[in-house]
Amino acid sequence: MTSIYFITVGAMLGTIILVFVIRFLQASAVAGADAAHTDSYRKLASDAVTAQSGNAATLSAIQSELAEIKSRMASVEKILKAVE
Hints:
Strand content: under 5%
Order of helices and strands: H
Largest sheet: none
Mean pLDDT: 92
Number of strands: 0
Helix content: over 70%
Number of helices: 1
Radius of gyration: 36 Å
Oligomer: single chain
């Protein structure tokens, strides 16, 4: 009779402990996934900043070339007006 009592109490306590272990493992897995997501987001943000600075440099180069083309075009127009 006492062995049945201990088996029953052990099964109930074991179930309770198992539920807590499963909840702990689930919370740990969620935290790990969140950390991985955060790292991915940080890498994406870093890549975006790098791309933005590269785009700014390219835009600056394009603007300087456009200014040079405008000055050349103005000199060509001046020469054409002088020829007329």
